Write a sequence for this structure.
């Protein structure tokens, strides 16, 4: 009886591991979908979806865009008030032009 219990338990553990309950399976819970924002056309609300960008920084991006024209590359964000090189590096995967 003990052997049968051991075999069944081991079979269930192997099955659980194979389906990703104990390890990484094909379904990953809590993953974040990647997205990109066009800095030259995005409205205020869309800019605020970027990591570390609140209403003030989003407004600064739009103001800079209106005053100086479209952004051509990520490094152009250095000229926006309140943006440091670290912020630009953090935003680089999320922006397009």
């Amino acid at each position: 009886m003990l052997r049968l219990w051991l075999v069944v338990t081991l079979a269930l553990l192997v099955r659980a591991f194979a389906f990703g309950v104990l390890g990484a399976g094909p379904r990953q819970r809590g993953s974040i979908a990647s997205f990109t924002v066009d800095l030259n056309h995005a409205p205020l609300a869309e800019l605020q979806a970027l990591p570390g960008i609140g209403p003030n920084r989003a407004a600064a991006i739009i103001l800079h865009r209106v005053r100086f024209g479209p952004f051509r590359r990520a490094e152009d964000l250095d000229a926006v008030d309140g943006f440091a090189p670290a912020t630009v590096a953090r935003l680089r995967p999320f922006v397009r032009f």
About this structure: The mean pLDDT is 83.
